[in-house]
Amino acid sequence: MSLERFLKTAVSSWMSEEGPDSDIVLSSRIRLARNFKDYKFPTLFSHEEAKVIIVNMEETIGKSDFQKFGQMELLKIDEMQPLQKRVLVEKHLISPHLAEDSPYGAVLLTENEEVSIMINEEDHIRIQCLFPGLQLSEALDAANEIDDWLESNIQYAFDEKHGYLTSCPTNVGTGLRASVMMHLPGLILTQQISRIIPAINQLGLVVRGIYGEGSEALGNIFQISNQITLGKSEEDIGRDLKGVVSQLISQERSAREALRKTSNIQLEDRIFRSLGVLANSRIIESKEAARCLSDVRLGIDMGYIEKLPKTILNELMILTQPGFLQQYAGGPLRPHERDIRRAGLIRERLKMEQEK
Fold this sequence. Notes:
By secondary structure, this protein is of the alpha+beta class. It has helices spanning 3-8, 47-61, 82-90, 96-101, 136-151, 185-189, 193-202, 234-262, 264-280, 286-301, 310-319, 322-329, 335-354; strands spanning 25-34, 72-76, 106-110, 115-119, 125-132, 158-159, 163-164, 176-183, 205-208, 221-226.
């Protein structure tokens, strides 16, 4: 494996598969924050101390007694170009924080990109497991298995009273962030989302955009995740999040059926207009592309469009991001040039699918 292998393929293996409730839930993610005992946290450590953490992690992963998730590739942030880092962020393999604010960071990736272990981000270790559809329990089991194996080789910073110690107090305790990425166009079109988000926040959960904190909900895609890590078990956090997500799934399906009953021709018109825009545009901005892709995916999920697979939407959501467009072009592009290339790429990909 190499960095190029992760940059060339737009869709990770987990994105090309369908999971439970995948018409609404795109993915489930578990992230565990951990730190080495007796080492300064990344907010305070030196370059030399950061190197020690990376070497220690590389040696630990290189041991032959843990191969369940396959070979892992170590990629160092300071050896990547800005564009390469941006592509990995767009694929959800590393965080924006690791890409932009962690010059001494690194990431360990499995070949199928289901497991990502970020090193020297906000904490020394951040184990991330991504599964398609609503599979929080499965993702948690995988993350815990990796965590248990690492803990058998590494002494973690742990306190009997407070749990796992982390750079940010909000992660102290389990160090667990569980999140689910959801496509919620029905709740947007029926104008229910503005009422639902405050109710979710009151339950100790947070609603963010497609790339987490500070990002927009492009293409009607939202991340729902826990805020509280102290005083709750990992199982409690996962169960609480799954309960809220299950209610959202039910509400989204009800909203879609309401649209079918009350605004069927208008909905169908919107879906096929968006498909027409994607199939024929010569220039298209990222926000418009995301909106149209959301409409088309809704059309596929509701049976209006029968000849396109859902996976093509997952692929185009990533391929049309600025980093990927420039990666394919071989260098930086001005915004207008990106809009032209985005439109061309979408047209070509849809044409390929229609010719099958």
